[in-house]
Design a protein that fits this description.
This protein has helices at residues 38-52, 68-71, 90-100, 112-116, 120-129, 173-180, 193-205, 231-237, 287-299, 317-321, 333-336, 340-350, and strands at 60-64, 81-84, 105-111, 133-139, 142-143, 149-150, 184-189, 209-215, 238-240, 242-247, 262-266, 272-277, 303-310. It is α/β, with parallel strands linked by helices and 351 residues long. Strands 2-1-3-4-8-7-13-9 form an eight-stranded mixed sheet, sandwiched between helices. The protein has a three-stranded antiparallel sheet with strand order 10-12-11. Helix 1 (38-52) crosses helix 7 (193-205) and helix 3 packs parallel to helix 5 (120-129). It is globular, with a radius of gyration of 21 Å. Bound molecules: thiamine diphosphate, iron/sulfur cluster (SF4) and magnesium ion.
């Protein structure tokens, strides 16, 4: 069975958000993934982030490809719009949906196989076009659903469960996203909710392409000694560059950070991203230095996590294409068919 509904009963004293909804209202069906799978922790972080942001679940569209990671939208935001696409094709379906209706909040969930192997081209083009979305890759360095083959993000030299050594160079999706022009680039770890929840909140509020590479160990096929995507390895090599707070425009601004160690980024909608710098060498608003920092720490054997780059001045694909603000399903006949005179004018302009 792949769909187990959760019991509807809520504890009467569960905290509610501005919409009067409880955290439970942001959940989905009961997960059928392996117990301990990192992907379930990411689903829990998405639930927490959307609850804390007071997002109406029915104004969110969640899209995915194929894989254990791509199954997860069933397990969160049960009241949201959902589309489980073909393997590696989530980005183009999301782009089309976004162009048709910009009023929804778009959340794309994918895996390292889904995005770095079969869907690599789709991943690249959605980011370089600036589609307004939050794109999360649940990265376990393995094809979990098809039982443990190396993926394109498995590190060279890392060991499969049966002992095979990976001889291929890995793709670092964070470095690629930076090079492609994504305007919000982060990496996190499924086992670090304190870091992941604010990153997802910040990404959801970002008005352009926001990409989060979330390392998410596969306990069935890639959590052994020798795997660089295991819980133990990531905990030992995790190097956070900053600590993030997301402050919505309407909230009073309070902080306990020490002066001199903070970077504040104000986005178009008034959201303030407040970053406490843990690594003095890293400037999250400088794309070139972010790439340099990533390469430098990688050479030192560290996995850089946190908000690695953000461009607060970003505009999305709708701005580049100068599309109408009204969702296509809300346009009337007069807008959709402007008549013979308007058509004649367009034709005349092309002669
Ligand atoms: C066109 C196509 N090719 C291959 C497959 C088989 N397949 C299903 S899931 C998958 C890999 C999934 O890996 P990943 O995206 O990393 O997800 P995970 O299961 O690890 O979360 C593959 C190769 C498929 N479903 N469709
Ligand atoms: S096979 Fe791996 S990725 Fe898939 S549910 Fe199990 S632990 Fe998670
Ligand atoms: Mg995978």
């Amino acid at each position: 069975m792949t769909f187990l509904p959760k019991p509807q009963l809520h504890h009467p004293l569960l905290a509610t958000n501005e919409l009067g909804l409880t955290r439970r209202d942001y959940e989905g069906a009961i997960s059928t993934l392996c117990a301990g799978c990192g992907h379930d922790s990411i689903s829990a972080a998405i639930v927490q982030a959307c609850f804390e942001l007071d997002l109406p679940p029915h104004r969110i569209a969640k899209l995915s490809g194929i894989g254990c990671s791509s199954k997860t939208p069933t397990y969160f935001l049960g009241a949201a719009h959902g589309f489980n696409s073909v393997h590696g094709r989530m980005p183009s379906v999301l782009t089309g949906a976004n162009l048709a209706n910009r009023d929804l909040v778009y959340l794309g969930v994918s895996g390292d196989g889904d995005s770095a192997s079969i869907g690599f081209g789709q991943f690249a083009h959605s980011l370089r076009r600036g589609v307004n979305m939050t794109y999360i890759v649940e990265n376990n360095g393995v094809y979990g659903l098809t039982k443990g083959q190396f993926s394109a993000t498995s590190d060279k030299g890392s060991k499969a469960k049966k002992g095979t050594i990976n001889t291929d160079e890995p793709i670092d999706l964070v470095a690629i996203a930076l090079q492609l022009g994504a305007t919000f680039v982060a990496r996190s770890f499924s086992g670090d909710k304190t870091q992941l929840v604010p990153l997802i909140k910040a990404a959801l509020k970002h008005p352009g392409s926001a990409f989060i590479d979330c390392i998410s160990p596969c306990v069935a096929f890639n959590n052994h000694e020798g795997s660089t995507k295991s819980f133990d390895f990531v905990r030992a090599h995790n190097e956070a560059v900053n600590k993030l707070d997301v402050i919505l425009g309407r909230e009073p601004i309070e902080t306990s950070y020490e002066p001199g160690s903070i970077v504040e980024v104000t986005q178009h909608d008034g959201t303030i991203l407040r970053l406490r710098k843990l690594d003095a060498r890293h400037d999250p608003t400088d794309r070139v230095s972010a790439l340099h920092h990533l390469a430098e720490r990688k050479a030192a054997g560290e996995i850089v996590t946190g908000l690695i780059f953000v461009d607060p001045e970003t505009e999305d694909l709708h701005a580049s294409l100068n599309t109408v603000p009204t969702p296509l399903n809300a346009l009337g006949d007069a807008d959709l068919c402007p008549g013979v005179a308007a058509l004649a004018k367009v034709n005349a302009a092309l002669r």
